[in-house]
Amino acid sequence: MRRLWSSLSVVSAAVLVAGQFTLAGSSPAGATPPVAKPSPPAAYPADSLRALADRVGLRIGTAVNADVLGVDAKYTQITADQFSSVTPENAMKWAEVEATRGTYTWEKAQDLVDFAKEHKQLVRGHTLVWHNQLPAWLSSDGYTTTLSNDEVKAVLKKHIFDEVRQFKGDIWQWDVVNEAFDDNGQPRQTIWYKAWGGTGYIADAFRWARQADPRALLFYNDYNLEFTGAKSDAVYAMVKSLQAQRVPIQGVGFQGHLSTQYGYPDLSNNLERFAALGLKVALTEVDVRTATKADAVNEPVDALAPYAQESYWSRTLQACLAVRACISFTPWGFGDAYSWVPGWFKDPQEGAALIYDEQLNPKGQYDVLQQDLALASGAPHRYGRGIGH
Ligand code: XIL
């Protein structure tokens, strides 16, 4: 496109129409003719998930593996073509950015932020306060530390200010606090909980993040909020209490790590009740895993499982589409070969959780998302697999 533009730039601006170029402004007679500004080329396929999602004002995202982006050409192309938002799968986590106390390594995260700018994508920052993937100098398990309570408080404050300022203006949504409650709806007794003597760290974290970047949307993010029950209720009560204290929280992220073995959750009702608090909501880490073979971790045991998975994907996306406050839908990666699922869920073995297969070819799960977006936007649907794959 760059080469095309330089050869076209000498052509009279007036003849360049139909979306390729826009006029910078009209000029009075006799003045220098208006300069034609190149408008961005159609950088992604018209049948891509992002193009279709654009038409309904939804951002469709993906978690991005920083070690694969820019290395695997097909992976990189799909990331750019299909998604309008990106989340660093690991690159912004504390263990990655400050493995050595006081020494920051922002490069991988910065590379993704730069990639996102180049491809007109928004970035979900993930995540500031969590009990997992902490640097060894701070905690090996998230529940114990050799630091004093005062030191723990001081390092969390510094971490939030330093990281949020580092990417200030470049982050659309920050997952400020991740997974603070357990499955019984009890606050996790993490190093944060212990240092504060309760959940007060959550309000502090949001206030510090707001001071460090006044514009990012600040999210609480967790899994199993999709299911009505003690955990979802506890988070709902916590959010209400934060709002009552005027803590700057704008959104709740539903991770959406689903498995066909647990049934489809009560997602719509839960999205709606959190949205009714005046919050944005988002699907932040969707994958739909199923029982797979031990020696072929992305091959379902049940040959019919992919149909159930398609249904889960479709209903999850539709639940988001049906709630105006649901601003983004992010699968946790897109290719089965790079998914965290097979390495994490081994008893029983689960996998095949994403929308592209191990060779990065789109699966039926991709097709249902594409068709749902097309239907929602009124575009012609039932695309064949043509351009873009
Ligand atoms: C996972 C990553 O996908 C893995 O690569 C990593 O080894 C562990 O963390 N909830 C979250 C994500 O909020 O950050 C987790 O990501 C998945 C569960």
Helix content: 25-40%
Which overall shape is indicated by the principal axes computed on the Cα atoms? globular
Give a list of the ligands.
(3S,4R)-3-hydroxy-2-oxopiperidin-4-yl beta-D-xylopyranoside
What order do the helices and strands follow? HEEHEHEHHEHEHHEHEEHEEHEHEH
Spatial order of the strands forming the largest sheet: 3-4-5-6-7-8-10-12
- Count, helices: 13
Distance between the termini: 21 Å
Low-confidence stretches: 1-30, 381-389
Strand content: 15-25%
Q: Let me know the number of strands.
A: 13
Report on the biggest sheet.
8 strands, parallel, barrel
What structural class do the secondary elements suggest? alpha/beta
Which value, in Å, is the CA radius of gyration? Answer: 22 Å
- Mean of all residue-level pLDDT scores: 90
SSE map:
Elements: H1 2-8, E1 21-23, E2 36-38, H2 49-54, E3 59-64, H3 73-82, E4 85-88, H4 94-97, H5 107-118, E5 122-129, H6 149-166, E6 173-178, H7 191-196, H8 200-212, E7 217-222, H9 230-244, E8 251-254, E9 257-259, H10 267-275, E10 280-293, E11 296-300, H11 305-321, E12 326-331, H12 341-344, E13 350-351, H13 364-377
Bound molecules: (3S,4R)-3-hydroxy-2-oxopiperidin-4-yl beta-D-xylopyranoside.
